[in-house]
């Protein structure tokens, strides 16, 4: 990733921030999804273990609902190798207060779980009673402080044996899909009954949803994928046409992102939407 991609989220220079547009578009999609019959992730397919949290701390009150942040370890095996990685779940203190939808976010290399922290934000997500969950999926580091793909590099015993070699570490996107499956099976005490799982990520982390869609590993796991400010060689519309993903895919990009391969061809009107926001930075 370039320094522009890592740092330009700080500078809007008076232009409309893309995250505001993403909030507005996402609110419409969330409302529309309320009319769609939900598809529950297959809990029986989960073979990995979300261990009991090592810490639980207050995460604030939103819309009259008290939230808690759980931190712990997710361990198991993907199709290519073993892993032991940190997870973080932000959920209502009373799991029955949630809306039954978990938003799963792979961490950005520099800003971690920034979709929750400031892109869509806690007020937007938690105020609508979503549950948010993040999990480490890569041990690659781009320098001091730029090692947040693993979510929390201070957790001892972290490793990823599978996936692919990626710079000075390994990246295994499949961990994210396995984590989403395991939430329905292993995390009832934290998240309650999981009705649906959504997948999001921005900039560096936005490529993960597209790769999972292209590989078919997101199918049957996520009802909605929302990658934003993304540049990727992956053609998501080809994946939809090949039947590798049957959920809905929404992409929101800034004017600074190369979106030439993402423009909506109109071939999948029931599944695909692409928005480019004029005058916005990455």
Write up this protein.
It is a single chain. This protein is of the alpha/beta class. The protein is globular, with a radius of gyration of 17 Å.
Q: What are the salient characteristics of this protein?
A:
11-stranded mixed β-sheet, alpha/beta, 13 strands, 8 helices, 282 residues, two-stranded antiparallel sheet
Helix content: 10-25%
Question: Whole-number average pLDDT?
Answer: 87
Our measurement of the CA-to-CA distance between the termini, rounded to an integer number of angstroms, reads 12 Å
Q: Please identify the structural class as seen in this structure.
A: alpha/beta
How many helical stretches? Answer: 8
Q: From the alpha-carbon coordinates, what is the Rg to the nearest angstrom?
A: 17 Å
Strand content: 25-35%
Secondary-structure element string: HHEEEEEHHEEEEHHEHEHEE
Shape call: globular
- The tally of strands reads 13
Main sheet record: 11 strands, mixed
In the predicted model, the low-confidence regions spanning at least 5 consecutive residues are 1-14, 32-46
Question: Helix and strand layout, with pairings?
Answer:
Blueprint: H1 3-7, H2 18-33, E1 49-50, E2 55-62, E3 65-77, E4 82-92, E5 101-105, H3 114-119, H4 122-126, E6 131-135, E7 159-160, E8 164-166, E9 169-171, H5 174-186, H6 188-191, E10 196-202, H7 207-215, E11 224-228, H8 236-241, E12 248-254, E13 272-277
Parallel strand pairs: 5-6, 5-10, 10-11, 11-12, 12-13
Antiparallel strand pairs: 1-3, 2-3, 3-4, 4-6, 4-7, 8-9
């Amino acid at each position: 990733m370039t320094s522009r991609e890592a740092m330009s989220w700080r500078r809007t220079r008076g232009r409309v921030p893309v995250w505001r547009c993403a909030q507005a578009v996402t609110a419409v999609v969330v409302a529309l999804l309320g009319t769609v019959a939900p598809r529950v992730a297959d809990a029986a397919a989960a073979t990995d273990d979300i261990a009991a949290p090592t810490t639980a701390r207050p995460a604030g009150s939103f819309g009259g609902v008290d939230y808690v942040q759980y931190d712990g370890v997710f361990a198991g095996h993907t199709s290519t190798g073993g892993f032991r990685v940190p997870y973080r779940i932000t959920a209502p203190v009373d799991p029955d207060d949630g809306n039954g939808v978990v938003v799963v976010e792979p961490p950005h290399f520099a800003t971690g779980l920034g979709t929750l922290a400031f892109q869509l934000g806690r007020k937007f997500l938690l105020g609508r009673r979503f549950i948010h969950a993040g999990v480490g999926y890569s041990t690659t580091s781009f320098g001091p402080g730029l090692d947040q793909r693993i979510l929390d590099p201070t957790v001892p015993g972290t490793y990823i044996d599978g996936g692919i070699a990626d710079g000075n570490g390994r990246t295994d996107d499949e961990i994210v899909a396995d984590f989403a499956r395991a939430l329905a099976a292993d995390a009832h005490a934290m998240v309650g009954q999981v009705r649906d799982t959504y997948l999001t990520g921005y900039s560096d982390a936005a490529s993960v949803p597209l790769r999972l869609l292209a590989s078919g590993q997101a199918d049957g796991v996520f009802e909605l994928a929302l990658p934003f400010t993304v540049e990727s060689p992956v053609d998501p519309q080809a994946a939809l046409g090949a039947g590798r993903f049957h959920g809905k895919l929404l992409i929101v990009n800034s004017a600074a992102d190369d979106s030439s391969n993402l423009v909506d061809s109109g071939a999948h009107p029931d599944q695909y939407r692409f928005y480019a926001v004029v005058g916005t930075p990455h």
